Amino acid sequence: MKIKSPAFNAGSSFLRPCALIFLLLFGALSAQHPLNTGNIIEKQYLEKISFEYRDGFMIVDVDYNGEKAKFLFDTGASNVLFGDKVEGTSKSAVVLSDSNANTTSAEVLFNQKFKIGDLEFTEMNFILFPGENILKTCFAVKGIIGANSFRNSVVQINYGTREITVTDAVSKLNTRDFQRMNMVPNRGGQVLPYVYFDYKASQKIEVAFLLDSGFSGAVHFSKEAKDLIGKWGGVAETERGKGFVSLSLIDKNENEDLERVRLKKPLMFANLSFINDYIVVSKDHNSKIGNKILEKLNPIFDFRKSQVYLLTNEDQLTGKKENVSVISDGIALRIAALWGAAADKAKPGDTVTEIDGQSPEILSRCESLRQKEKLLSGKSKMKVRSQVTGQTIQLEIR
After folding, report:
1. What is the pLDDT of residues 27-50, one digit of tens each?
2. Taking the model in full, what pTM does it have?
3. What domains sit in the chain, N to C, each tagged with a CATH number?
4. Is 388 exposed, middle or buried (0-12, 13-18, 19+ CB in 10 A)?
C-alpha cells in the first residue's frame, strides 16, 4: 500500500527564490498569473552554460535589455526581475504571498527577451519584484531565471564541472547511470519539478519533493508530509523552537514558533541516503530538496516530457543538528533561532557577546550570511545579553 503526500498547488505561478543552509530560507512567492510563455528561438540546440557556485547558489551570466547581468538560476522559481522599471512593455498587477504569510503587490512584464550563452529567449514573462531585497543586496543579482524559461527544453546541472547543459532532446545527453522518474503533475500549470520519493514507515509513503536549485540547504518537509509520516509511525521525535528560519524577499517573521522532526529511517533519493538528526518543517506547504542533495545527483530535468533523471551512484550524506543560529544586523551578532532547551533560556534578537570566550566580529548582514558555515562551526558555548532584562545568559552550542 502506498500513501501519497501531494505536491503544493500554488495556482498559476510560483516563485520560491532560495535558501541558506543554516536555515535562513527565502520564502515561496506565489502569484495568480500565467508565466509559462515564450520560447527559445533555436529549434535544435545543445548549449553548455557555466555558472558561479556562490554560497550554495547558482549564478549565471545573462544578456538582458542590452546589458550583461548576473541572475540566480532557480528550478524552483519563475522568472523574476528585481526592482528595475522596463519601459515600453505591457504590465499586469499581481499579488505575491510568501512562506511567512507576508504579501505585496507586483507587476508582470510581458514579451521580454534575453540571451544565455548562444541561446536566445523570446516572449518571456517576468515578475517585477519591487524595492530592495536580500538577494539583490547581498548577491548582486538582477533577478531570477526560473524553470518556466525551459518549459520546452531539457536541462542538466553538473555541479562538478559547474555547467548547465540546455538542449532540445534528452537523447543528446548521457543518461546511462541515471534513474528516470516522472514529475508530479502540477494542477496550477506552473513548470516546477516535483518528484515523488518513497519513505518506509509502517506503510510506504510517497512524498512529493520540489527539486529546487534555488535552495542551498538539503531537505525541508511540508507540514502535510510531516503529519503523514508521523501518522504512520515514521517520526522518532519532534523538537520545537523559536525565532525565524525564513528570510523571504518580502519580509521575515522574527519570533515564529518553529518545528523540526527526527525520522526513524534515512530518506532515500535515488541511491543517496540522507541521514539527519532533524529536518525543518517549512511554512510554505512545500517539501523540497536543495543543492546539498542535488550536488550528489547531477539532475537532468526533461521539462518537455515531465521527467527527471538522477545519478544513481551509492552515497550517504549526514546532516547537521544545530540548536542555535545567528545573524548580524551590522551592529551586533544576534540570535536568529533557538531549538529545544536553548529556546527556554534565551530569545531571538538577544545579543551574542561571547563565543568560546571571544567577542564576535561585527559583520554586515550580508557578510554574516556568506560566513554562515564558519560563525559557530566547532564552537561549544556562547554568552548572550537578554534584550528584555539585560542579564547575561550562557548557552551550550551543539
Report:
1. 334 444 567 788 999 999 999 999
2. 0.90
3. 10-171 (2.40.70.10), 178-318 (2.40.70), 324-396 (2.30.42)
4. exposed
